[in-house]
Amino acid sequence: MSIKVKGLKELAQVMHELPDKLANNVMRSAMATGARVVRDEAKRNVPVDQGALKKSFDVSSRVDKANGIVTAKVKATNFKAVWIEYGTAAHWISIDPAERPTKVTRRGIRKVGMKTLNNMAKAGSLRIGEHFIGASVAHPGGRAQPYMRPALDSKAQEAVAAVGNYMKKRLTTKHGLDTSGIDVEAEEE
What we know:
By secondary structure, the protein is of the alpha+beta class. The chain has two domains: 3-86 and 143-188, no CATH class; 91-139, no CATH class. It is built from six helices and ten strands. The strands form five sheets. Strands 1-10 form a two-stranded antiparallel sheet. It has a two-stranded antiparallel sheet with strand order 2-3. Strands 4-9 form a two-stranded antiparallel sheet. The longest helix is centred in the N-terminal third of the chain and has 26 residues, at 20-45.
């Protein structure tokens, strides 16, 4: 996918008039604005009803001082985010030996053996919430339910246009530069 942006050359010429630090600040804010477009779409695409994942989205932008490249990032910080986006393979879940239940005997406190563990599911070892379900479980895995990549694919053009429009607006309002002759349009090629 490639996106052609009209008005970018003109904006770049105006940006070259600014000191480097100021130009970098304008670009960081502009890139974050574009990333927010993708973030908002990703939030709408999240397939689960729980709000924890939807609330965990962060947008950040930075300037690599070595080469002057400005980047923006949309990230879901919830630990389940990757599992939902890419799915999980079938796998075994078993109890950590340090967490195995114990029983009190006349000889003292003893760890329960695997045979006993499998027979005592009610007092068992592996818990889901407050429910004991046994020593180990074969998890069937989960199918992928992508939300981030489709958000980028569907909103990339809008995000690029938002970056250009933010730059134009900020250069005019905060820095008093004339950008009235610059029209920013993004279209997919």
